[in-house]
Write a structure and sequence with these properties.
The complex is a heterodimer.
Chain A lengths: L9 H16 L10 E2 L34 E2 L5 H9 L19 E7 L1 E3 L2 E4 L3 E4 H13 L5 E7 L15 E5 L23 H11 L9 H5 L4 H4 L4 E3 L13 H4 L43 H5 L13 H18 L4 H4 L1
Parallel strand pairs in A: 1-2, 3-7, 7-8
Antiparallel strand pairs in A: 4-5, 5-6, 8-9
Helix pairs in contact in A: 1-4
Chain B lengths: L1 H16 L14 E11 L5 E11 L16 H10 L1 E11 L3 H4 L9 E8 L6 H16 L11 E2 L19 E6 L6 H9 L15 H4 L4 E12 L7 E13 L11 E2 H5 L12 E7 L10 E4 L4 E7 L2 E9 L15 E4 L13 E8 L5 E10 L6 E9 L3 E12 L2 E2 L4 E5 L8 E9 L3 E11 L15 E3 L3 E7 L26 E7 L3 E3 L8 H25 L12 H13 L5
Parallel strand pairs in B: 1-10
Antiparallel strand pairs in B: 1-2, 2-8, 3-4, 3-7, 4-6, 5-6, 7-8, 9-14, 10-13, 11-14, 12-13, 15-16, 16-22, 17-21, 17-24, 18-19, 18-22, 20-21, 23-26, 24-25
Classes of the chains: A alpha/beta, B alpha+beta.
């Protein structure tokens, strides 16, 4: 999730896209990824190289790529939508790509980046999510059995405050800085004119580039990424709610998706003409007279289009009251016996 | 003998009757066909426009019968049409603006942002519910925020947007039209669009569609059109047509590096290697029409497979055709890089002016009132023609219809038909449709004044100082042709000539869009509540606090302290000495 808007927050979009890219490379398909970007940097008019988002200066690595699927764009990235995705309370007409269809066997990775403070994360400069709300959302997910294990990574200033309040089991959290510290950005690019990435995510990306779907690296190595000498802030982590030992947790448990493949030695013959598979169309009835195209600008028909007759509504209370008042005043003034003269 | 003859006659009759009339062959596989085409047209300003059209046509009726086997027609769209009772669907996502004045009439224009208009079948009972579901499903397919389409930006036009496909009657209550001018178009919208093509982006003309080049352009528009068409010349059965079009205009300065010579490699950084194997026709057309009836200015290489003349938009045009399916094309080299070179430098005074073009702007000053002005130009020397103007204005710009003025050549021009639907706050936008006669060689100015509303503080978007967009207005007109068009066989003519069904050759139908407007609403300063709280609390603390202190503070005499241990010892010694204590 990237929560920042405006061109100078280019680095937050680059952070999110680089994690997205690593996760796709390690095997998780787009149908299992919900990507939320609060602003569009790639086709922003200020981007000198449209349709690209770079993470390294000298424009080495385009993390936007050619095959990106953004599920929540621009104004759709709000606290409400984020919490609805997590808890599953989504309006019924939401398409599948925008839902988190997880069950109690799913491992979920949540990566958030943006501007934050002690106990909150700012969404699009107009609202914020607090650590208490986030902890409650995770508890709802736990009670509805929407996850098996959850890894929460946050890259903002004072990021460790966001995981202080978690109380649901099976959650492991990483943050880029402790309470009271700011997370810093890595390097600006003079061609694009803004900072391209944040330090913590830059080193995490470097670490992830060496992981492949079969690697056995575990979480302890991820905790060592970006020591204070490189990151200037102190990354933190929290594993007390997690039931397994981080030593035994593989990186690919969360970042990759390893599918079980069974290899068989027997051959299957695919019959070319399988009966019953032909498309059985019901017998069509042809029209008796030829169908026509509509006229695009039927001037005569338009001019003579009668306006729709407004339905007659009985007069409302005000009109009735007004008329009753007028009639009462009239008869009070002139007396009821004059009525026959009036009519 | 007689009985045998009767039986023989019966058998002969049965054999001769063949399939019963009125019934199509059941069980025969329905044919579907793909045609792809690319049109390169150099524009008068030195830019070049490339229009891709991919047409999948399926001879089946999606509405009836449970269709389960999809071959070329994408399943996502086929199921959408069947499930929601859609008769026609037109969705366009556009970035940029087509400058009609300088580039000429567009083959198919779309307004900036996202535009969706749909005709539903008469069998649909709740059109609004189907419309809402449709926009949500499309937002998932195309990764666009089409779920923001709701009653505040949907209108029901009564005269524009007549169906482009076969139609049995045009009850406009089955039509819905919405525009989202703020919508951004980027690679995430192009990728699902490409995935709907039968060959994807792996073969045929779609290999040229690379995002880094397509979005580095002045105008990029991708659209999906689904409509029912005649299956054959007799038009007794219908087929469904899916047309995917992509128009991109490469800028002379940024992509062309200041040179007017273009080539496929320069535009797309790729060349064509083969046609899509699933396509029945795959062609590249280059517009080599001479301008101003002089000798050819444009040279194409390699030499085209044929030259085709057609009457497009009322004018006779010549096209060089490269047929990717003809074996002779790839004889000399494995890839096709069409190059366009100008034989002599083009004079800028030769720029032809299109017959109909328009512009729109906001007038006025301040944040209270303003004025929307639309200028429509008819540059035809002697023919007048009518145009329908459709304007959709969001509810927070309150239009005053009594200030609507239409002035042509200094005199007031009364429209033949006006349909105005006022807005309702937070539920419906303004809709203004007018049929105006444009006299020959004239400029028509339409102005209407509005007042800006103050929104509730939660209704402002996160970046309210950017401004609020007003969608483009739509001009639909039947423009008189220079050359009369003959009725051509739809299947043989190029795709770019056949989207708008033409009824008579003396004029052609064109739909133009004006610029979208960006209007500032009075925006509160959102940091003010915090500032006010700080200031008020400081003032209260300082003033009231001091006052309270002055009024309630009491004064006591303080006992001098007894002193520390050393002092007490010293006092004890001094007492013994008889000296006064410290």
């Amino acid at each position: 999730v990237c929560t920042s808007r405006f061109w100078f927050n280019y680095r937050h979009v680059a952070n999110t896209l680089s994690v997205y890219r690593s996760v796709k490379r390690l095997g998780i398909p787009d149908s299992h990824i919900v990507l939320m970007l609060a602003d569009d940097m790639a086709c922003n008019p200020r981007n000198p190289k449209p349709a690209t988002v770079f993470s390294h200066k000298n424009m080495e690595l385009n993390v936007y790529g050619d095959d990106v699927e953004v599920d929540y764009r621009s104004y759709e990235v709000t606290v409400e939508n984020f919490l609805r995705v997590l808890t599953g309370r989504i309006p019924p007409s939401t398409p599948r790509s925008k839902r988190l269809l997880s069950d109690d066997r799913s491992n979920i990775l949540i990566y958030m980046t943006g501007h934050g403070g002690n106990g909150f994360l700012k969404f699009q400069d107009s609202e914020e999510i607090t650590n208490v709300e986030l902890a409650d959302a995770f508890e709802q997910m736990w009670q509805k059995r929407r996850y098996n294990e959850l890894l929460f990574i946050i890259d903002t200033c004072q990021g460790a405050s966001m995981y202080e309040r978690f109380y649901s089991p099976n959650i492991m959290a990483l943050a880029s800085s402790q309470v009271g510290e700011d997370s810093l950005s890595h390097q600006p690019d003079l061609g694009i004119g803004v900072h391209l990435m944040d330090r913590y995510t830059f080193y995490v990306l470097e670490f992830l580039e060496e992981i492949h779907p079969a690697s056995q690296t575990n979480m302890n190595d991820l905790f060592q990424v970006c020591p204070k000498s490189l990151c200037v802030s102190t990354p933190g982590h929290r594993t007390d709610l997690f039931q397994r030992d981080p030593q035994n947790v593989l990186i690919t448990d969360f970042f990759g998706s390893v599918r079980k493949v069974e290899i068989t030695a027997e051959t299957l013959s695919l019959d070319r003409d399988v009966p019953g598979l032909e498309s059985k169309f019901p017998e069509e009835e042809l029209a008796t007279e030829p169908l026509k195209y509509a006229e695009q600008l039927p001037v005569a028909q338009i001019i003579h289009q009668k306006p729709k007759q407004k339905d007659w509504h009985p007069p409302g209370g005000f009109i009735l009251g007004l008329w009753a008042l007028i009639i009462m005043v009239f008869f009070k003034t002139y007396g009821i016996k004059h009525m026959k003269h009036v009519f | 003998g007689g009985m045998a003859a009767a039986v023989l006659l019966l058998l002969l009759l049965l054999a001769a009757a063949g399939p019963a009339p009125g019934r199509a062959d059941a069980g025969r596989e329905r044919r579907d066909a793909l045609r792809e085409e690319l049109l390169l047209s150099p524009l008068p300003t030195g830019d070049v426009a490339a229009t891709f059209q991919f047409r999948t046509r399926w001879d089946a009726d999606l509405q009836r019968g449970a269709v389960s086997h999809y071959r070329l027609f994408p399943k996502a769209l086929g199921r959408l049409v069947a499930a929601l009772g859609v008769r026609e669907l037109h969705l366009a996502l556009t970035q940029g603006f087509w400058r009609t004045r300088y580039w000429g009439q567009p083959p198919l224009q779309a307004p900036a942002g996202a535009e969706l208009w749909v005709w539903f079948q008469p069998t649909v009972t709740d059109v609004d519910k189907a419309w809402k579901e449709l926009s949500n499903i499309l937002s998932g397919i195309f990764c666009a925020s089409l779920n923001f389409i709701d009653s505040t930006n949907t209108v029901i036009p009564t005269a524009s947007f007549k169906p482009l496909g076969l139609a049995n009657g045009t009850d406009h209550h089955l039509l819905r039209y919405a525009v989202l001018p703020r919508e951004v178009v980027c690679t995430e919208n192009l990728t699902p669009w490409k995935k709907l093509l039968p060959c994807g982006s792996k073969a045929g003309l779609a290999v040229l569609l690379k995002a880094e080049r397509l979005f580095h352009s002045s105008y990029h528009s991708q659209a999906v059109h689904i409509r029912p068409i005649c299956r054959d010349a007799s038009c007794l059965a219908l087929s469904w047509e899916l047309r995917q079009t992509l128009t991109v205009v490469f800028d002379f300065f940024s992509s062309g590096q200041g040179k007017k010579d273009w080539s496929l490699f320069k535009m797309f950084s790729r060349t064509l290697t083969d046609a899509c194997p699933l396509a029945s026709q795959s062609k590249v057309y280059v517009d080599i029409s001479p301008k101003n009836k002089e000798k050819e200015l444009l040279e194409v290489s390699p030499p085209p497979t044929s030259v085709h003349e057609a009457i497009v938009q009322g004018d006779r045009r010549t096209y060089a055709v490269y047929d990717l399916l003809s074996p002779s094309l790839f004889n000399t080299s494995r890839s096709l890089n069409v190059q366009l070179k100008w034989k002599r430098p083009q004079d800028s005074s030769e720029m032809p002016i299109p017959t109909l073009h328009a512009q729109r702007y906001v007038g006025g000053y301040g944040l209270q009132t303003g004025e929307i002005c639309t200028l429509i130009y008819n540059t035809h020397p002697y023919r007048a023609f009518p145009v329908i103007l459709l304007e959709t204005v969001p509810w927070y710009l309150r239009l005053y219809v009594h200030t609507l003025t239409i002035i042509t050549k200094g005199k007031e021009n009364k429209p033949s038909y006006i349909h105005y639907q006022p807005a309702q706050d937070r539920s419906r936008p303004h809709l203004l449709e007018m049929l105006i006669q444009l006299p020959a060689n004239s400029v028509t100015k339409i102005t209407i004044q509005f007042e800006r509303a103050l929104l509730k503080w939660t209704e402002y978007p996160p970046d309210p100082n950017h401004g609020f967009y007003v969608g483009s207005s739509v001009l639909s007109a039947l423009v008189p042709s220079v050359t009369a068009m003959k009725d051509m066989d739809v299947e043989q003519s190029p795709l770019f000539t056949s989207l708008f069904p033409s009824s008579d050759g003396s004029s052609y139908f064109v739909r133009l869009y004006t610029e979208p407007l960006l209007v500032n609403l009075p925006t509160p300063d959102f940091s003010m509540p915090y500032n006010v709280i700080c200031l008020t609390c400081t003032v209260v603390a300082v003033c009231y606090g001091s006052f309270y202190n002055l009024l309630t503070r009491t004064f006591h005499v303080e006992e001098p302290s007894r002193g520390g241990l050393a002092k007490r010892l010293a006092n004890v010694i001094r007492k013994f000495r008889g000296v006064p204590p410290l």
